[in-house]
Amino acid sequence: MKVMTAIKRVVDYNVKVRVKGDQTGVDIVNVKMSMNPFDEIATEAAVRLKEAGQATEVLAVSCGVPQIQETLRTALAIGADRGVLVQTDVELQPLAVAKLLAAVVEKEQPKLVILGKQAIDDDAGQTGQLLAALLDWPQATFASHISIAGEIATVTREVDGGVEVIDLTLPAIVTTDLRLNEPRYVTLPNIMKAKKKPITTVTPDELGVDPTPRLRTLKVVEPAARKAGVRVADVAELVEKLKTEAKVI
Ligand code: AMP
Questions:
Q1: Per-residue pLDDT at 224
Q2: What is the pTM assigned to this prediction?
Q3: Of ligand 1's atoms, which has the minimum distance to the CA of residue 64?
Q4: Are strands 112-116 and 9-11 parallel, antiparallel or unpaired?
Q5: Could you tell me the distance, in angstroms and rounded to a whole number, from the CA of residue 7 to the centre of ligand 1?
Q6: Which contacts (CB < 8 Å, 24+ apart) does range 222-231 have?
Q7: N or C: which end of the chain has fewer CB within 10 A?
Q8: Average pLDDT over residues 116-141
Q9: How many angstroms does the Cα of residue 135 sit away from the middle of ligand 1?
Q10: Candidate from 113, 127, 134 with most ligand 1 atoms within 8 A of CB, to mutate
Q11: pLDDT digit string (tens) for 21-74?
Protein backbone atom coordinates (compact mmCIF):
# COMPACT_ATOMS: atom_id res chain seq x y z
CA MET A 1 0.00 0.00 0.00
CA LYS A 2 1.41 3.34 -1.06
CA VAL A 3 0.70 6.25 1.33
CA MET A 4 0.94 9.85 0.19
CA THR A 5 1.31 12.83 2.53
CA ALA A 6 0.77 16.49 1.64
CA ILE A 7 3.33 18.92 3.00
CA LYS A 8 2.97 22.70 3.21
CA ARG A 9 5.84 25.04 3.97
CA VAL A 10 4.63 27.75 6.36
CA VAL A 11 6.04 30.47 8.61
CA ASP A 12 7.45 28.69 11.68
CA TYR A 13 4.94 28.57 14.54
CA ASN A 14 7.36 30.40 16.87
CA VAL A 15 7.53 33.48 14.63
CA LYS A 16 5.28 36.42 15.41
CA VAL A 17 4.25 37.58 11.96
CA ARG A 18 3.93 41.24 11.04
CA VAL A 19 1.42 42.69 8.62
CA LYS A 20 3.01 44.47 5.64
CA GLY A 21 2.66 48.26 5.54
CA ASP A 22 0.42 48.13 2.44
CA GLN A 23 -1.92 45.55 4.15
CA THR A 24 -1.55 43.06 1.26
CA GLY A 25 -0.40 40.22 3.54
CA VAL A 26 2.20 39.32 6.16
CA ASP A 27 5.91 39.93 5.79
CA ILE A 28 7.77 36.67 5.15
CA VAL A 29 11.09 38.15 4.02
CA ASN A 30 13.92 36.64 6.14
CA VAL A 31 11.38 34.79 8.29
CA LYS A 32 12.04 31.21 9.42
CA MET A 33 9.92 28.73 7.44
CA SER A 34 9.10 25.18 8.57
CA MET A 35 6.86 22.26 7.76
CA ASN A 36 3.24 22.85 8.80
CA PRO A 37 3.01 21.05 12.20
CA PHE A 38 -0.07 19.02 11.16
CA ASP A 39 1.88 17.78 8.10
CA GLU A 40 4.71 16.57 10.34
CA ILE A 41 2.03 14.56 12.16
CA ALA A 42 0.76 13.27 8.79
CA THR A 43 4.27 12.21 7.76
CA GLU A 44 4.88 10.53 11.13
CA ALA A 45 1.59 8.62 10.78
CA ALA A 46 2.53 7.43 7.28
CA VAL A 47 6.03 6.38 8.37
CA ARG A 48 4.59 4.46 11.34
CA LEU A 49 2.30 2.57 8.92
CA LYS A 50 5.40 1.64 6.91
CA GLU A 51 7.30 0.58 10.03
CA ALA A 52 4.32 -1.58 11.02
CA GLY A 53 4.55 -3.31 7.63
CA GLN A 54 1.22 -1.86 6.44
CA ALA A 55 2.58 0.63 3.93
CA THR A 56 5.12 -0.24 1.25
CA GLU A 57 6.09 3.31 0.30
CA VAL A 58 5.61 6.80 1.72
CA LEU A 59 5.47 9.61 -0.82
CA ALA A 60 5.63 13.25 0.37
CA VAL A 61 4.13 15.85 -1.98
CA SER A 62 4.34 19.62 -1.78
CA CYS A 63 3.19 22.41 -4.07
CA GLY A 64 4.81 25.82 -4.38
CA VAL A 65 8.14 27.61 -4.71
CA PRO A 66 11.51 25.82 -5.27
CA GLN A 67 12.65 26.45 -1.65
CA ILE A 68 10.04 23.86 -0.60
CA GLN A 69 12.62 21.18 -1.51
CA GLU A 70 14.15 21.91 1.91
CA THR A 71 10.84 21.16 3.66
CA LEU A 72 10.41 17.97 1.61
CA ARG A 73 13.88 16.91 2.81
CA THR A 74 12.58 17.15 6.38
CA ALA A 75 9.74 14.78 5.42
CA LEU A 76 12.33 12.42 3.92
CA ALA A 77 14.38 12.67 7.14
CA ILE A 78 11.30 11.69 9.18
CA GLY A 79 11.17 8.58 6.99
CA ALA A 80 9.28 9.27 3.75
CA ASP A 81 10.86 7.41 0.80
CA ARG A 82 10.37 9.88 -2.00
CA GLY A 83 9.31 13.47 -2.62
CA VAL A 84 7.35 15.19 -5.37
CA LEU A 85 7.51 18.96 -5.74
CA VAL A 86 4.82 20.57 -7.85
CA GLN A 87 6.73 23.73 -8.60
CA THR A 88 5.07 27.08 -9.22
CA ASP A 89 5.50 30.69 -8.15
CA VAL A 90 1.75 31.32 -8.39
CA GLU A 91 0.03 32.03 -5.03
CA LEU A 92 -1.71 28.71 -4.26
CA GLN A 93 -5.16 28.60 -2.71
CA PRO A 94 -6.74 25.40 -1.30
CA LEU A 95 -8.76 24.57 -4.45
CA ALA A 96 -5.65 24.83 -6.65
CA VAL A 97 -3.63 22.69 -4.19
CA ALA A 98 -6.41 20.09 -4.10
CA LYS A 99 -6.48 19.94 -7.91
CA LEU A 100 -2.69 19.56 -8.06
CA LEU A 101 -2.73 16.84 -5.38
CA ALA A 102 -5.58 15.07 -7.22
CA ALA A 103 -3.46 15.04 -10.39
CA VAL A 104 -0.52 13.53 -8.46
CA VAL A 105 -2.90 10.94 -6.96
CA GLU A 106 -4.04 9.96 -10.48
CA LYS A 107 -0.40 9.33 -11.45
CA GLU A 108 0.84 7.71 -8.25
CA GLN A 109 -2.27 5.75 -7.22
CA PRO A 110 -1.78 5.80 -3.43
CA LYS A 111 -4.30 3.91 -1.28
CA LEU A 112 -4.26 6.50 1.47
CA VAL A 113 -3.58 10.26 1.40
CA ILE A 114 -2.86 11.95 4.73
CA LEU A 115 -3.00 15.75 5.00
CA GLY A 116 -2.94 18.14 7.93
CA LYS A 117 -6.34 19.32 9.17
CA GLN A 118 -5.23 22.88 8.48
CA ALA A 119 -2.22 24.96 7.52
CA ILE A 120 -1.26 27.30 10.35
CA ASP A 121 -0.63 30.27 8.03
CA ASP A 122 -3.99 30.74 6.31
CA ASP A 123 -6.02 28.46 8.64
CA ALA A 124 -8.18 27.47 5.66
CA GLY A 125 -8.83 23.86 6.68
CA GLN A 126 -10.19 23.05 3.21
CA THR A 127 -7.64 21.13 1.15
CA GLY A 128 -8.31 17.59 2.43
CA GLN A 129 -12.06 17.98 2.02
CA LEU A 130 -11.72 19.46 -1.49
CA LEU A 131 -9.34 16.66 -2.49
CA ALA A 132 -11.80 13.99 -1.26
CA ALA A 133 -14.56 15.66 -3.29
CA LEU A 134 -12.45 15.93 -6.46
CA LEU A 135 -11.42 12.25 -6.24
CA ASP A 136 -14.83 11.13 -4.96
CA TRP A 137 -13.07 9.24 -2.13
CA PRO A 138 -14.28 8.79 1.46
CA GLN A 139 -12.69 11.10 4.02
CA ALA A 140 -12.05 11.22 7.76
CA THR A 141 -11.04 14.64 9.05
CA PHE A 142 -9.42 15.54 12.43
CA ALA A 143 -8.01 12.03 13.00
CA SER A 144 -6.59 11.15 16.42
CA HIS A 145 -6.10 7.43 15.62
CA ILE A 146 -5.76 5.43 12.41
CA SER A 147 -5.68 1.66 12.02
CA ILE A 148 -5.75 -0.32 8.78
CA ALA A 149 -7.12 -3.82 8.30
CA GLY A 150 -7.24 -5.06 4.71
CA GLU A 151 -9.23 -2.60 2.64
CA ILE A 152 -10.67 -0.76 5.65
CA ALA A 153 -9.20 2.18 7.55
CA THR A 154 -10.70 2.71 10.99
CA VAL A 155 -10.28 6.32 12.08
CA THR A 156 -11.04 7.98 15.40
CA ARG A 157 -12.13 11.59 14.82
CA GLU A 158 -12.06 14.44 17.28
CA VAL A 159 -15.48 16.07 17.17
CA ASP A 160 -17.22 18.61 19.41
CA GLY A 161 -17.92 16.98 22.74
CA GLY A 162 -16.15 13.67 22.15
CA VAL A 163 -14.76 11.28 19.57
CA GLU A 164 -16.31 9.47 16.64
CA VAL A 165 -14.96 6.20 15.20
CA ILE A 166 -15.63 5.54 11.52
CA ASP A 167 -14.66 2.90 8.95
CA LEU A 168 -13.58 4.00 5.46
CA THR A 169 -13.05 1.83 2.43
CA LEU A 170 -9.66 2.48 0.86
CA PRO A 171 -8.60 4.47 -1.11
CA ALA A 172 -9.37 7.29 1.31
CA ILE A 173 -8.36 10.72 2.60
CA VAL A 174 -7.45 11.37 6.23
CA THR A 175 -6.60 14.72 7.83
CA THR A 176 -4.61 14.81 11.06
CA ASP A 177 -5.43 16.34 14.42
CA LEU A 178 -2.88 17.24 17.10
CA ARG A 179 -3.32 14.10 19.19
CA LEU A 180 -2.69 11.58 16.37
CA ASN A 181 0.98 11.24 17.33
CA GLU A 182 4.07 13.10 18.43
CA PRO A 183 6.42 13.40 15.44
CA ARG A 184 9.91 12.02 16.02
CA TYR A 185 12.92 14.25 16.43
CA VAL A 186 14.81 14.43 13.13
CA THR A 187 18.33 13.09 13.75
CA LEU A 188 21.51 14.10 11.90
CA PRO A 189 22.08 10.60 10.40
CA ASN A 190 18.53 10.67 9.04
CA ILE A 191 19.06 14.17 7.60
CA MET A 192 22.17 12.81 5.84
CA LYS A 193 20.24 9.76 4.54
CA ALA A 194 17.46 12.05 3.32
CA LYS A 195 19.91 13.89 1.04
CA LYS A 196 20.18 10.73 -1.09
CA LYS A 197 16.43 10.16 -1.40
CA PRO A 198 14.84 11.29 -4.69
CA ILE A 199 12.69 14.38 -5.17
CA THR A 200 11.08 14.79 -8.58
CA THR A 201 9.76 18.10 -9.82
CA VAL A 202 6.70 18.64 -12.01
CA THR A 203 4.83 21.77 -13.04
CA PRO A 204 1.08 22.44 -12.84
CA ASP A 205 1.15 22.60 -16.64
CA GLU A 206 2.56 19.08 -16.89
CA LEU A 207 -0.24 17.94 -14.57
CA GLY A 208 -2.84 19.76 -16.68
CA VAL A 209 -3.94 22.01 -13.81
CA ASP A 210 -4.50 25.78 -13.89
CA PRO A 211 -3.53 27.02 -10.39
CA THR A 212 -4.66 30.64 -10.90
CA PRO A 213 -6.15 32.04 -7.65
CA ARG A 214 -9.95 32.38 -7.52
CA LEU A 215 -10.05 34.57 -4.41
CA ARG A 216 -8.59 38.06 -4.05
CA THR A 217 -7.29 39.25 -0.68
CA LEU A 218 -8.68 42.72 -0.07
CA LYS A 219 -6.64 43.53 3.03
CA VAL A 220 -4.90 41.99 6.02
CA VAL A 221 -4.88 43.81 9.38
CA GLU A 222 -3.43 43.15 12.84
CA PRO A 223 -5.95 41.96 15.46
CA ALA A 224 -7.18 44.77 17.73
CA ALA A 225 -4.86 45.22 20.72
CA ARG A 226 -6.34 44.04 24.02
CA LYS A 227 -7.30 46.94 26.31
CA ALA A 228 -5.63 47.13 29.72
CA GLY A 229 -7.77 45.89 32.65
CA VAL A 230 -8.71 47.85 35.81
CA ARG A 231 -8.35 46.72 39.40
CA VAL A 232 -11.50 47.01 41.55
CA ALA A 233 -11.39 47.58 45.30
CA ASP A 234 -14.11 45.15 46.33
CA VAL A 235 -17.00 42.96 45.18
CA ALA A 236 -19.46 45.83 45.45
CA GLU A 237 -17.45 47.90 42.97
CA LEU A 238 -17.14 44.88 40.63
CA VAL A 239 -20.92 44.33 40.67
CA GLU A 240 -21.48 48.03 40.09
CA LYS A 241 -19.15 48.04 37.05
CA LEU A 242 -20.75 44.86 35.64
CA LYS A 243 -24.12 46.64 35.89
CA THR A 244 -23.26 50.12 34.66
CA GLU A 245 -20.21 49.71 32.37
CA ALA A 246 -20.26 46.15 31.01
CA LYS A 247 -24.10 46.02 31.29
CA VAL A 248 -24.00 42.23 31.69
CA ILE A 249 -26.10 42.00 34.88
P1 AMP B 1 -5.41 24.24 4.35
O2 AMP B 1 -6.63 23.70 3.69
O3 AMP B 1 -4.69 25.29 3.52
O4 AMP B 1 -5.62 24.67 5.77
O5 AMP B 1 -4.34 23.02 4.40
C6 AMP B 1 -4.68 21.75 4.90
C7 AMP B 1 -3.63 20.74 4.50
O8 AMP B 1 -3.53 20.67 3.08
C9 AMP B 1 -2.20 21.05 4.96
O10 AMP B 1 -1.99 20.63 6.29
C11 AMP B 1 -1.39 20.22 3.97
O12 AMP B 1 -1.40 18.83 4.32
C13 AMP B 1 -2.20 20.40 2.68
N14 AMP B 1 -1.67 21.53 1.89
C15 AMP B 1 -2.06 22.82 1.93
N16 AMP B 1 -1.31 23.58 1.09
C17 AMP B 1 -0.42 22.72 0.52
C18 AMP B 1 0.63 22.88 -0.45
N19 AMP B 1 0.93 24.07 -0.98
N20 AMP B 1 1.34 21.78 -0.81
C21 AMP B 1 1.03 20.56 -0.29
N22 AMP B 1 0.07 20.36 0.63
C23 AMP B 1 -0.65 21.42 1.02
A1: 87
A2: 0.92
A3: 19
A4: unpaired
A5: 6
A6: 222/19
A7: C
A8: 97
A9: 16
A10: 127
A11: 999 999 998 999 999 999 999 999 999 999 999 999 999 999 999 999 999 999
